[in-house]
Amino acid sequence: MPRKSRLWHTFVAFALVATLGACGNDDKAADPGFAGHWTSSQWGEHYILVEGSTMKIIYAHDDGRAVGTLDGTTFAGWWTESPSRQPPRDAGEVEFKVIRTDDKRTIDGTWRYASDGALREDWDLVWVDAEIPAEIAAKFADAAFFVQHP
Questions:
Q1: Dmax of the chain from CA atoms?
Q2: CA-CA distance, 96 to 77, in Å (whole number)?
Q3: Buried b (16+ CB within 10 A) or exposed e, 92-119
Q4: How far apart are CA 67 and CA 58, in angstroms?
Q5: Model confidence, pTM
Q6: 94 forms bridges with which residues in the sheet?
Q7: pLDDT tens digit string along 7-54?
Q8: Is residue 89 classed exposed, middle or buried when 0-12, 13-18 and 19+ CB atoms within 10 A define those classes?
Q9: Percentages helix, strand, coil for the chain, rounded to the nearest 5?
């Protein structure tokens, strides 16, 4: 193989590795500590998946789901629950903020039915661990259950 060709292949390989490494770092930087298993005294077990700036949540209460966008330590999104996954009773806005104190991680959450009305402040979560069971992880792939804010 000619010397020029080897240099070109080396350059391309280096650029690819550098680009892929940068992509991985961006995804990690987008998650300030949300991903994993959480629990809530109000709404049961929660599992959170972060993909870049998109965050998805599966929670126990009424087969709940939420999807939205991360901005630093804040998540703003739309929750839905069975049976209809539609406002005004089974969907609405939600906002979570990760709070870190010493070695403890919590989420302070507010929510409301649909897009108007008073915000409720009783959606709080406590970190359990980073584990997401396989049966829950498989549910994240079903896009039909993650309804975006209308």
A1: 71
A2: 9
A3: bbbbbebeeeeeebebebbbbbeeeeee
A4: 9
A5: 0.79
A6: 77, 111
A7: 434 333 333 333 334 444 444 455 889 999 999 999 999 999 999 999
A8: exposed
A9: 25, 45, 30
